[in-house]
User: Which sequence fits this backbone?
C-alpha cells in the first residue's frame, strides 16, 4: 500500500471493520493520544463503524491545545518588547491566552510573523540584525529536532539575535500522567505515529508493561487506524499488553537516531506545564547550558500577569479524556472555529474543532 488512495479503499476498510466486530467481545475503552488521529477518526466516521463494545476517547495529542495559558502569556509578553520579532507556526496565532492572543498583539502593532519552518525564522534574524527574533518552540518530539537544528545552525553562522521560547512537550510522560491519575480507565492506547517516527517504539514499552495496557503505534490514514484498532482488540481479547507497530512504513523500533542525537545535543528534559494536567516532571525540553544564550526566557525578563482560563471552557478536561466537547455549554453556540473560545476549537487537530466540523454527536 504505497499510495494514499490505497489507505482509503472502502473494501479494505470493510474487511478490517468486520475483523474488529468479529474479534471484539470485551467492553474496552481506547484512547487515541494524537489530534491527527482524532481528526481522521471523525472525518471518516470510524467511531460509528466500530462495535458497541469499543469506546473511543480522545487524548491530549495536540501541541497547540496542551500549551498552558501561562506559557502562551509569556509569548504574548515577549511580543510587547520593543525590537522583538515573534515567529511562529500559524496555528498559535488565534489561540487565546489569559488576556489576549498573538493575533490581537499583532493587530495592536506587535511584530508577529507566521513562518513555515525554523529556517524562515533564522532568515528573518539574518535580515534584521538590529532586532531580536524569537521562535516559539511549540510541539512534540516531532518538531524538537528541527528546532534543535536551527539552534546549531545559528551557532555555526554566528547569528546572535535568534532565540527560542522552548515550550516543547514529550508524549510518553503525559500518557503516564493520565494513567497515573486514574480518572479515565483505558484498556488500549493508539500511540502517535509522527512522534514515534522520531522516538521509535521502545519508549512505549514501559507504558505497556507498567500499566498492563496494549500500545499500538498508528499512521494517520483511515486504514492505518482501523488496522491499529484491530491489533489492539486482538491483544485485549488475548489478555496481552505489548507494543506493536501498525505504522511500519514510518516507524522503526529505534526511532530516528540522527534526529534523537541532535535533539539530545541541544535539549535536556525539564518539568513542563500542560493545559488541564498541570506540571508533569520530565515532560518538557529546555536548552542545555551550552546553548542557553539562545533561550528567550533567559535572555528577556518577562513576568506575565497570573494566568487564567477562558470562562466556561473545559479544554483541560477534554485533553485528559474526562469530558467530550459536547459536554461544554459553549460548544457550537458561543465557541465555533470562526470565534474560538479555547484552544481545542482553534487548532485544526483540536477535539472541539473535529467534533464541530465532522459531527458533534458521533460516537456519543
Ligand atoms: S467548545 Fe470551546 S470553550 Fe468549550 S471546551 Fe471546546 S474550545 Fe473550550
Assistant:
Amino acid at each position: 500500500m504505497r499510495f494514499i488512495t490505497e489507505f482509503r479503499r472502502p473494501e479494505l476498510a470493510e474487511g478490517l471493520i468486520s475483523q474488529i466486530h468479529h474479534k471484539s467481545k470485551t467492553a474496552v475503552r481506547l484512547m487515541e493520544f494524537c489530534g491527527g488521529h482524532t481528526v481522521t477518526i471523525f472525518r471518516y466516521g470510524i467511531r460509528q463503524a466500530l462495535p458497541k463494545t469499543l469506546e473511543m476517547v480522545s487524548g491530549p495529542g495536540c501541541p497547540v491545545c496542551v500549551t498552558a495559558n501561562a506559557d502562551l502569556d509569556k509569548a504574548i509578553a515577549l511580543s510587547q518588547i520593543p525590537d522583538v520579532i515573534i515567529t511562529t507556526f500559524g496555528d498559535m496565532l488565534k489561540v487565546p491566552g489569559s488576556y489576549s492572543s498573538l493575533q490581537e498583539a499583532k493587530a495592536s502593532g506587535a511584530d508577529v510573523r507566521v513562518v513555515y519552518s525554523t529556517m524562515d525564522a533564522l532568515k528573518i534574524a539574518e535580515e534584521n540584525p538590529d532586532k531580536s527574533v524569537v521562535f516559539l518552540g511549540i510541539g512534540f518530539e516531532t518538531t524538537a529536532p528541527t528546532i534543535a537544528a536551527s539552534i546549531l545552525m545559528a551557532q555555526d553562522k554566528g547569528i546572535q539575535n535568534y532565540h527560542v521560547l522552548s515550550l516543547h512537550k514529550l508524549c510518553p510522560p503525559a500518557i503516564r500522567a493520565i494513567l497515573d491519575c486514574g480518572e479515565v480507565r483505558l484498556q488500549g492506547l493508539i500511540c502517535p505515529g509522527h512522534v514515534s517516527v522520531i522516538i521509535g517504539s521502545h519508549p512505549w514499552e514501559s507504558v505497556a508493561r507498567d500499566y498492563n495496557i496494549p500500545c499500538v503505534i498508528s499512521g494517520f490514514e483511515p486504514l492505518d487506524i482501523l488496522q491499529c484498532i484491530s491489533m489492539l482488540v486482538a491483544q485485549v481479547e488475548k489478555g496481552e499488553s505489548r507494543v506493536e507497530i501498525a505504522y511500519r512504513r514510518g516507524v522503526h523500533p529505534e526511532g530516528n537516531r540522527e534526529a534523537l542525537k541532535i535533539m539530545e545535543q541541544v535539549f535536556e528534559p525539564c518539568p513542563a506545564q500542560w493545559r488541564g494536567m498541570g506540571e508533569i516532571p520530565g515532560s518538557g525540553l529546555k536548552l542545555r547550558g551550552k546553548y542557553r544564550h539562545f533561550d528567550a526566557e533567559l535572555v528577556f525578563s518577562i513576568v506575565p500577569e497570573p494566568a487564567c482560563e477562558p470562562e466556561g471552557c473545559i479544554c483541560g478536561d477534554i485533553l485528559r479524556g474526562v469530558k467530550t466537547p459536547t459536554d461544554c455549554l459553549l460548544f457550537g453556540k458561543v465557541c465555533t472555529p470562526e470565534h474560538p473560545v479555547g484552544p481545542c476549537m482553534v487548532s485544526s487537530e483540536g477535539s472541539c474543532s473535529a467534533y464541530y466540523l465532522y459531527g458533534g454527536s458521533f460516537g456519543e
Q: What stands out?
A: The longest strand covers residues 278-287. The two ends are 32 Å apart (CA to CA).
